[in-house]
Amino acid sequence: MSHLGVIQALTDHGIQFSHISGTSAGAIAAAFFAAGYAPKEIVQIIRDTKLLTLLRPSLGSTGLISILKARVLIDKYIPHNSFQKLNTQVTIAAVDLGEGRLVYFTDGDLDMAILASCCLPGIFRPIIINNHMYVDGGILNNFPVEPLVGNCDLIIGSSCNHLPVVKEIKSFGNLIDRAAMIAINSSLNVHKSLCDVIIEPHGLGGYGIFDTAAAEEIFMIGYEEGLKTIEGNEKIKEILLEQKGENLI
């Protein structure tokens, strides 16, 4: 949700994207946006979707829940199911659990790549692609900027996992969320250093992974942070001036 707010702020001011790289929630935002949906449309799609109906128990296997049924939702809104037919080049990161390595998907079935990238280990059953088990790319790289390096004029990073200081954890769900965020943020600064601009919305620590009821609030946090960055960042201002000049030619 917050990634979508950031994208909305940037597109509202004329920023055009040649390539988007993402993992987990970032992969969903990237794919749907690159398929031609406006960020606000994607928010509405997610709000209208009853997520729990797309999850089913997977007891006795390598995860508590299977998300494979969610493939139906992706195929409904992106029926061509192709990286090549997207309006913007997209790279999706996932982890090959068997080989213990990070994989960047740029072709093949788009829906399976998205599901693999979102597959939180221990909660969701791994996604099988070509006999390989895949899980959430955030395990090894929650900020997959590397595919953009050398391929873009300006790299803008959207980091929506800011960790506030907390004094108590009230539930098992909060504990899992907190532990996951700490783990995936452990090497974040290394990846951030490869970006020209970083947009990092704060105030997201009070929301959980499945808080779709708060979708608009989370979206607006990203949107407002995006606006602040645009107004205060000289590199973005320079790019916008260049684009205006090109449009006048």
Automatic annotation (TrEMBL):
A single MF term (Gene Ontology): hydrolase activity
Pfam families: Patatin
Motif GXSXG, residue numbers: 22-26
InterPro entries (UniProt xref): Acyl_Trfase/lysoPLipase, NTE, PNPLA_dom
Motif DGA/G per UniProt: ranges: 136-138
Sorted UniProt keywords: Hydrolase, Lipid degradation, Lipid metabolism
GO biological process, alphabetically ordered: lipid catabolic process
Lineage top rank: taxon: Bacteria
PROSITE patterns hit by this protein: PNPLA
Domain PNPLA: 1-149
Active site: 24 (nucleophile), 136 (proton acceptor)
Protein name: PNPLA domain-containing protein
Organism ancestry: Bacteria, Pseudomonadati, Bacteroidota, Sphingobacteriia, Sphingobacteriales
